Amino acid sequence: MPEEKLTAEETHIRSKIIIEILGKPKEHVEKTLRMYVDKIKEDSDLIVLNSEFADAQEKGDLWATFVELELVIKGVPKLIAFCFDYMPSSVEILKPEEFNMKKSTVEDLLNDLQARLHNVDMIIKQQKNENEFLKKNLNKSAGNAILIALAQGSLDKEKLSKVTGIASKELGIFLDNLIKENKISKENELYSLVI
């Protein structure tokens, strides 16, 4: 009698997973990764066989570290869900070599992928709208702070920077915009309100 192959939903999959994290300070990055792995170990859909943590390395002004997990998870759909939930940077399947997948399994995986992608797209669009709203209001607030400061009299860029709390480098952008809007003028390095 031929050996019956397990379906992709029933097959236990043994994999090596790498999860990376980047941030600062170093201690926070290392602690956060360990807490993340503890959360993964609580997941009833998988068994963590081994976890090897790398030492955090400095990357510019941030710290990077990673963990390599060896785990067993039941079924391709749960492996894919794991990837969405925990965002590993690398997945290596150790066993099995082949999968027996039904058409409906592939359809379910593709539809789940599409639903998750649509959700991510919606979140990105929402964040973009919020960022545009915040940027617009921040620009207005910065412009108003400059106008209020100049209501007291003419100031140079350095004094405006101290009064408004806006770094001199970034202040130039706001000053240029207010000049274009004909709200302020510049003469001999002094900025004044246009009356």
Report on this model:
With 195 residues, the chain is of the alpha+beta class. It has two domains: 12-101, Alpha-Beta Plaits, CATH 3.30.70; 127-193, Winged helix-like DNA-binding domain superfamily/Winged helix DNA-binding domain (Arc Repressor Mutant, subunit A, Orthogonal Bundle), CATH 1.10.10. The chain has five helices and eight strands, in the order βαβββαβαβααββ. The chain has helices at 26-41, 76-86, 103-150, 157-164, 168-180, and strands spanning 12-23, 46-53, 57-59, 62-74, 90-95, 155-156, 184-187, 190-193. The strands form two sheets. Strands 1, 2, 3, 4 and 5 form a five-stranded antiparallel β-sheet that branches. It has a three-stranded antiparallel β-sheet with strand order 6-8-7. The radius of gyration is 28 Å and the shape is elongated. The chain starts with 11 loop residues before the first strand and ends with a strand. The model has no long low-confidence stretch (mean pLDDT 88).
